[in-house]
């Protein structure tokens, strides 16, 4: 018996894991008389023939169906193929486990269980196995990113520009409390060199700020987006600038600013107006702490230029004290909500007399702040349809409806329902209530019956 | 009949039946929610000649204590968006000029609502024509809508179905006037906020200015409803010592006049002494003297003589008032000591 076991062990040791390897015929022959004939399922089907699938490795096979040559691409071929479709067919496969559910002692099962020798045998087929494998393969390739919450989204979908990436990393014990960094631009840049060839990197342009007049911007480059973002964020934290914010919500005065071909006209707005401007300017304002402003960009809208022009303008703002001192006149605010009560914003140390004012002096505050520049305001023409006769007809028809909404609200408040002056006497004199769908169906059924 | 250029349309059988419209609320009104009994300027004595007296007006104005920042405080004007403020460069003279203009506007804004006697009900039958009996099932209202007549002088008469021709009562007059000559922000029916259940809620939220402003737009000053609403509001303010809310508004004068008229100035006097406004306290006593024809020694505005006299003779809250006067005296003494101490330290005394 001992010799018998030894033989089996020896024979199993000779077995290689490679499925392609065939068992030595000698072993086969030797084992046949000794093993019970009814349970022999030992030999694998051989693959003697060479064909397309066993000649090439999986990588080459996949490449063949998921790529297209450069020339082909130019002709518009291979638009639907993608490297995403490549599947690793080896995943989920275990050596020794296959379609035929066979127990292989020493490979998929122990050789001796208790005092018994485990015998090689065929178990009934597992119908679940195929299904599990195909499921696993289906899941491969379509990796979905977790959906961003609307608060986390940037300017467009899941793209980085406009998204917030947190405060710059602390340096030693100095932390950037209350800071937030927002991405303004993320783009691919290339560098060409004789020896290295074309090198691809990502360039990120970010702005960081504490929402209270402290902000800085910087670019960072890296092969991976994560490193580029980190670099840019930390560099921005090192380049902070103080920005003056009027009453914690807007700019001190209207101003014009330019960087390269980008020209921006910025104007102050009252509370509740919001940020009506280019999205890059809006993002900068959010980070700086400006809440109300109108800005019009003229010329190039290159994001880096827009940002630089805007920040340049913000830094060049003059406080009201400076302006009053420069002009040697009181600066007074007149506001409708205050009943146009003159509120002195700033006074000079010595004020000029009325007769000291020059006849050609710029005394308009906005003109003064824009350096004599005049913003071109286009005339707004009435829409084309107002000239049509149909518009007049429409207006005539609308005339009798013009107060319906107010009457409706008033009646609801007064009587709790819409009614007419006859309703009290004739309760049916009420507007018909819109029927619910379920009621309608019920009625129809009744009529059919 | 040529005066009646316009005939008022026939009123249907169901015009403005308040009871029919608000059955629930009328029941609710039976339970008095506020513990205040409204006091009107009744027929016994007319407050108007006293109130419009320039001396009284100036006293009321000094009691109002005009603070331009509060007069021109930020108001919600109901606009969709705030207007962009304008900025101007000004010399000293120009600034003074604009401030003067603003002061003039403040005077207009602070013009006090009139205080008059409550109106007498109208019940005058012009003629009875039994021949016209049964001519129509509803009454006819005739309104003179010719141009240039005051609302109070407008001729409005009613022909009853039984042929009686009589002058319209106040409710009909108000309705007709508002119908033909609508005043802005005045509604045809009294808004519910003046019903006691809603009014008490508003007052508990200290919306005094809103209530008083709205009452001014809705009612004529001799309307009993106006006097009811203002009286309850004034009493609420007096009980809760919320005088500061009405300061620098046009309603402070009528409030002070109301409290003085009904001899209820103790709370206001106490507040004035506690906040060390002795001149205002003396003004108040001058007003009290004028209305009730008493004489207090209030010639010197900073002296406490008149006040102590009042406390002795007429005050109802003697204890707290005396304590307040004592506290004021202590404060004054300490202040003087400090002043002297400073002067000694500077080597001046």
Automatic annotation (TrEMBL), chain A:
GO terms for cellular component: mitochondrial inner membrane; mitochondrial small ribosomal subunit. It is found in: Mitochondrion. It holds the Pfam family Ribosomal_S5_C. Residues 429-443 have a biased composition (Basic and acidic residues). GO terms for molecular function: RNA binding; structural constituent of ribosome. Keywords: Mitochondrion, Ribonucleoprotein, Ribosomal protein. Its main location: mitochondrion. One of its GO terms (biological process) is translation. SUPFAM superfamilies: dsRNA-binding domain-like, Ribosomal protein S5 domain 2-like. InterPro entries: Ribosomal_Su5_D2-typ_SF, Ribosomal_uS5, Ribosomal_uS5_C, Ribosomal_uS5_N, Ribosomal_uS5m_N, Ribsml_uS5_D2-typ_fold_subgr. PROSITE patterns: S5_DSRBD (PS50881). Residues 179-243 form the S5 DRBM domain. Residues 429-449 are annotated as: Disordered. Gene3D superfamilies: 3.30.160.20, 3.30.230.10. It comes from the Eukaryota. Belongs to the universal ribosomal protein uS5 family. Component of the mitochondrial ribosome small subunit (28S) which comprises a 12S rRNA and about 30 distinct proteins. This is Small ribosomal subunit protein uS5m. It comes from Ignelater luminosus.
UniProtKB/TrEMBL annotation, chain B:
GO terms for molecular function: structural constituent of ribosome. GO terms for cellular component: mitochondrial small ribosomal subunit. It comes from Ignelater luminosus (Cucubano). Signal peptide: none annotated. This is 28S ribosomal protein S22, mitochondrial. PANTHER family: MITOCHONDRIAL 28S RIBOSOMAL PROTEIN S22, SMALL RIBOSOMAL SUBUNIT PROTEIN MS22.
